[in-house]
Write a structure and sequence with these properties.
globular, two-stranded antiparallel ribbon, alpha+beta, 5 helices, 6 strands
Length: about 140
């Protein structure tokens, strides 16, 4: 089975979906028969390279809502991500245009390292930490 994933590096929903798919495949007996192909998709091709506003302010402007409502929305995403072992740090996020990241992905993909590259870029664009937990200790 081939699964194509179209996503952008700045999309928190995309990373949550990717991680949930990976978790599901770990439980699937025939996961070695599943091929995942990542595809580039820009959520906002007109995004600037840099902004003088934080992500909460940009979301508020984009969707015509108060900044506190956007912050609350992002807090809900943080809670959803925690359920699958990801910690989003929206306050550290630096909004940008992802075109160059997608271009570089296409280049790296040709060498067979596209998946590893994408994981690292997702971590970089969505300041994120993976939670490591054992029965003996928990650290971030």
């Amino acid at each position: 089975m081939k699964i194509e994933i179209w996503s952008d590096y700045v999309c928190p929903f995309c990373y949550i979906g990717k991680r949930k798919l990976e978790i599901a495949l770990e439980q699937y007996d025939f996961s070695d028969e599943v091929e995942i192909e990542l595809k580039s998709f820009e959520l906002d091709p007109n995004a600037q390279k840099s902004y003088d506003k934080n992500i909460h302010e940009l979301i508020a402007k984009k969707y015509g809502m108060p900044v506190e409502q956007a912050r609350s929305f992002n807090e809900q995403l943080i809670e959803e991500a925690k359920k699958i072992g990801l910690i989003y740090e929206f306050d550290k996020m630096i909004p940008t245009n992802t075109f160059d990241a997608h271009r570089l992905f296409q280049y790296v993909k040709s060498s067979g390292k596209g998946n590893a590259f994408s994981e690292e870029v997702l971590k970089a664009f969505l300041p994120i930490r993976k939670i490591f937990q054992t029965t003996m200790f928990s650290w971030i």
